[in-house]
Amino acid sequence: MATVIAVRGTAEERIAPELGAVSLTVSASGAERDATLARTTESRDALIAAVQGLDDSGALDTWSAGQLHISSHRPWNNEGKQLPVVHQVNADVEVVFTDLTKLGEWVSAVSVNGRVSVGGIDWRLTDATRKRTQEAAQRAAVADAVTKAAVYAAALGLGAPSPVELADTGLLTAQPVPPGAPGERMFAMRASADMSGGGGGPAQFTPALLVIAASVEARFTAEPA
């Protein structure tokens, strides 16, 4: 009787990011609402002008600027006394660079502006590259499953295994061994699905490699050699 062998195949592809998305916030606070709004608007307009210059130079993929948001609150001092109203104005801007060298230079320059804060850098791939890299990882994960199944079959003195089922991890249908079935064995390796890329924060504006991972489950049968 055929032996059923179930395995999990995994693979990772590592690739340098192509895009760097910088998130920034322009902000100011003060007792006078109109003056605070004017200062923030001035800083936001200056930042957008600089971003438009980058875009014209070909250094950017895309960029976007949000609307100004105004809020007011009355803070408390350390004696429990409520202080006069403080107005806070914020505006978010995202700049997606294709020129990663220029990204580092520009972020270093813009960071010295007291009204502009850098929220972080999200390292990304273009859609076409991500799709191509995911497909490579998926093919490698299937190859890993085939290799594992062949190793188990050989260890049991069986012939070459034949695939009968393949799925993303967690989607393989249950197929329990009938109780008391003579000569039938099942070997299984299972884990949660993982098909994602990740990116970390910059170190000296040098991004780490992005990791695109794939995971599959496969079921094979193998006859005695």
Question: Which SSEs are present, and which pair or pack?
Answer:
Layout: E1 3-15, E2 19-30, H1 33-57, E3 60-65, E4 69-73, E5 86-97, H2 100-110, E6 116-124, H3 127-155, E7 162-168, E8 186-187, E9 197-198, E10 210-222
Parallel strand pairs: 1-8
Antiparallel strand pairs: 1-10, 2-5, 2-6, 3-5, 4-5, 7-10, 9-10
Share of β-strand residues? 35-45%
Q: Which regions have little confidence, pLDDT < 50, spanning 5+ residues?
A: 177-203
What is the top-level CATH class of the largest domain? Alpha Beta
Computed structural class? alpha+beta
Keywords summarizing the entry:
Translation Initiation Factor IF3, five-stranded antiparallel sheet, five-stranded mixed sheet, Alpha-Beta Plaits
Brief overview, please?
The chain has 225 residues and is of the alpha+beta class.
Q: What features would you describe in this structure?
A:
The chain is α+β, with helices and mostly antiparallel strands. The chain folds into 2 domains: 3-15 and 128-222, 2-Layer Sandwich (Translation Initiation Factor IF3), CATH 3.30.110; 19-124, 2-Layer Sandwich (Alpha-Beta Plaits). Helices cover 29% and strands 36% of the residues. It has 3 helices and 10 strands. It has helices spanning 33-57, 100-110, 127-155; strands at residues 3-15, 19-30, 60-65, 69-73, 86-97, 116-124, 162-168, 186-187, 197-198, 210-222. The strands form 2 sheets. Strands 1, 7, 8, 9 and 10 form a 5-stranded mixed β-sheet that branches.
